Amino acid sequence: MDQILQLEKEIEGLRQKLIEKENELQTLKRSLNLNQSAELQNGASETCNGNQKVMYGALPKWAIERYSRQILLREIGVPGQSKICSARVLIVGAGGLGCPAAMYLAGSGVGGIGIVDYDVVEITNIHRQLLHKEENVGMNKAESAAQAIRSINSQIKVTPYKVQLGSSNALQIASKYDLVLDCTDNAPTRYLLSDLCVLAKLPLISGSALKLEGQLTVYCYRSDLHSEDKNSTYRGPCYRCVFATPPSPDAMGSCSQHGVAGPVPGTIGTLQAMEAIKLIIGHPSTNLLVGRMLIMDVDDMSCKVVKLRQRNPMCAACSDTPTITRLVDYEAFCKTLAKEKELELHILPPINRITAKEFSILQKEKTTLLIDVRNESEFDMCHIEGAQNSPIDNVESKMEELLRRVQDNKGAVVFVCRRGNDSQIAAKMLLSKLPEEHKSKIKDMIGGLHAWAQDIDKTFPVY
Ligand SMILES: Nc1ncnc2c1ncn2[C@@H]1O[C@H](COP(=O)(O)OP(=O)(O)OP(=O)(O)O)[C@@H](O)[C@H]1O
Ligand SMILES: [Zn+2]
Fold it and tell me: Which residues form the Rhodanese domain (predicted)?
């Protein structure tokens, strides 16, 4: 047994070494690519997907025609377009940010685009994730986005990865790319991507969007890899330099909880593509969002660029003596799951839990009280008839009143939320303060309104 464990350990060590070597190889390949693209600018004969037809300088006729509107820009020109055509960009997340980013990168002719997403298209995505079509509901998002951008540009190579990017597969997937776009929505993946980009020496263009606000910045920038001036060694901050400790799990809002206006991620994702193009063509770091963050609020259309903390010489990941030398367990580090939908709490004893079916029977009793702990806008959107709204964020401040209501009520007091997690948290808060004889009145509806819609009322909206 010991021998087997020892062998497994050795195999794991060898596997890790292999990934590191593959990574080194890819870095070498990347610099080779850069040199080749420099040769192309000097009149070599092949570019853009290996198309070798009639050449005009470094680009074939079709590419000159197709990309002429951007080639005309002094900042891009033929050399810039050649670089764009040989660049390979990895987009992580094919949601609100990933869709517009992929669209513009494909349109501008980025030669290789990888798209990672494990999830499937849902009808709630389509108001903002405009690469996904109604007929693709249920299809994997990476596949759906890949299909859509292939129809925008058939000259480029698009690779969908239908997986969750995590510590075990990230280095391998990223090693095939020159830069990474963070188009995800959760803290564990943000830290993963930052550490990944430090280890793999890739710049990371990070976007976020919630409600009416969007943010954009570039992490892990290295001038030695991305500008013409190979003598300078300026390096921008990584995500950990700016946010050394993860936010508390409750502080990270999600679009499914707080909502988002479609054009916000639409704009930020588009600007992520813009920063990617600027990086590819070798724009100076002073003109990129390195060590700076764009913050946009469409409520009053204000847009500002704020200075971020610079690279931390003691950073655990990107300092010269890092303590993080391989990818770690980011869900443990952030104390939250990367897949919000998979969070399923079990924090109440069975006596305090009932199914939607059991509630539908209890509901007939006049003495049953239903307390919906979602926020006000969710409650206004849809709720079970007779429910009273008491948002989870106010439970602490309204504790006295809630305790009184439970004690005065003769029947059951049932807590409900969207999926059945917040309702358990609220119920638990009350249980810790209630006198023993009232505790069995408290019930949590297992699976929340999703279970209600699935098992009892098919007409109830699922969101
Ligand atoms: N580690 C990961 N690997 C692959 N894809 C990821 C990872 N983390 C997040 N994503 C994907 O990033 C995308 C983020 O999209 P977005 O922020 O628009 O939210 P959503 O999950 O699509 O929608 P909603 O929050 O409204 O349900 C999602 O499609 C999600 O599946
Ligand atoms: Zn750092």
Answer: 364-461
Over the stretch 207-225, which tens digit does the pLDDT of each residue have? Answer: 999 999 999 999 999 988 7
Tokens of 123: 């009808």
Longest Cα separation, the chain: 87
Is the separation of the CB atoms in 461 and 381 below 8 Å?
A: yes
What confidence tens digit (pLDDT) does each residue in 296-311 have?
Answer: 999 999 999 999 999 9
**CB of 178 closer than 6 angstroms to any ligand 1 atom:** no
Ligand 1 within 6 A of CB of 185: yes
Q: Say which DSSP state 188 is in.
A: H
Please tell me the distance between residue 184's alpha carbon and the centre of ligand 1 in angstroms.
5
- 282: alpha, beta or left, given left = phi > 0 and alpha = psi -120 to 50? left
pLDDT, residue 108, reads: 98
pTM for this one?
0.85
Measured in angstroms, how far is the CA atom of residue 310 from the centroid of ligand 2?
9
Q: Which residues are CB-neighbours of 433 under 8 A, at least 6 positions away?
A: 399, 403
User: Of the residues 48, 85, 255, 334, which is catalytic?
Assistant: 255
ipTM over 0.95: yes
Among 34, 12, 280, 21, which residue's Cα sits nearest to residue 171?
21
323 contacts 315 by C-beta, under 8 angstroms:
no
Ligand 1 proximity of 189 Cβ (cutoff 6 Å) = yes
Residue owning the nearest CA to atom 20 of ligand 1 = 95
Alpha carbon distance 221, 215 (integer Å): 17
Amino acid 245: pLDDT: 95
Q: How many Å from the N-terminal Cα to the C-terminal Cα in the chain?
A: 49
Q: Is 197 annotated as a binding residue?
A: no
- Known active-site residue 183: no
Q: In 3-state terms, the chain is what percent helix, strand and coil (to 5)?
A: 45, 15, 40
- Predicted pLDDT at 45: 40
What are the residues whose beta carbons fall under 8 Å from the beta carbon of 356, sequence distance 6 or more? Answer: 445, 446, 447, 451, 452, 454, 455, 456
What is the structure's pLDDT at 39?
45
In 409-447, alpha helices (H)? 422-431
Ranges of the chain whose pLDDT falls below 50: 34, 36-47
Write down the pLDDT at residue 7: 85
58 φ, ψ to 5°?
-90, -5
